[in-house]
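WARN no homologs supplied; continuing
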Amino acid sequence: MSQTPCPVISATGLFTPPHSISNAELVESFNAYVERHNAAHADAIAAGEVAALEPSSVEFIEKASGIKARHVVDKASVLDPDTMCPRIPERGNDELSIMAEIGVAAARQALERAGREPGDVDAVLCAASNMQRAYPAMAIEIQHALGIEGFGFDMNVACSSATFGIQTAADYVRAGNAKSVLVVSPEITSGHLNWRDRDSHFIFGDVATAVLVEDASIAPAAHWDILGTKLKTVFSNNIRNNFGFLNRAAPEGQGQADKLFVQEGRKVFKEVVPMVATMIVEEAERLGIDPHSLRRLWLHQANSGMNRLIAQKVLGHEANEDESPTVLDTYANTSSAGSIIAFHKHSDDLAAGDTGIICSFGAGYSAGTVFVRKAA
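OK structure emitted
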């Protein structure tokens, strides 16, 4: 009798851009822009026709978010007050796109850690918050670059894309449609951030992650059993990005701010924290897991205050760094990749039998949970 397929996480991979921007560097650039703007519009500001821009500060950023630095694919252009956005040279159609390039780097690391060859993989899901083009699918380009047979497709659920991708991959394994699936999340979030908006200019960073989801029958001994997954979406305009193929102009400057990332931060905080905490607790109980017993929470890395409150509601006490590790301070918000970075960097020390949760949440609203237990 054949064994029922059981999905596991065999390995993860991470690509980190070589360039990092500290809060001090970012504030210097932003404040130079503010000074130029206010000087250029001095008469209108004095007449009350234009509002003066306020400078930023390291203290403001760290208090608002917990972020201290972020990695980006193009540091010079982001810090140049004349541009304040990444300038990534467009590549020819016969060249590997930058999004596929960093995705492939993360995927190769995941495959290497699992002892896999590309030929062992059946499917590639590119799960990220913003694709650099509509088609061909980024997943198919990554699949081609790696030399993988089978199929691939893109999926976008903003900051929850990776966890939604993990459940999708796990479902393919359970259904017998695949034995090995790569979930790749290349996040070049510096491209959709308005670096001239004081309330959000510090939020995002660039990165790429990969998660190899496989049938337990072929997984390496050191893997993570997927105990259960849960997805949830609730429509909200409180986090939004209106840029798309119907917008013909490039997202430049203040005049097209709604074509970049915008959010109502306080509303998001107030509404998402209880939604996510309740979702985690209810799903843990459904799986027969005491939420207070969770060994580690790998939460979405968007805001330190949100994570602190969610962890407290789930564990029943304020979590320490060991129980709810942070990568937000050095990576900033990397959208769907955040919880995967935390898992990638802070999971090797757990013992066999330890149970934890990978959880993401963000625009949509969307939220995804992946309960895992270390097998060896």
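The chain has a mean pLDDT of 95.
OK
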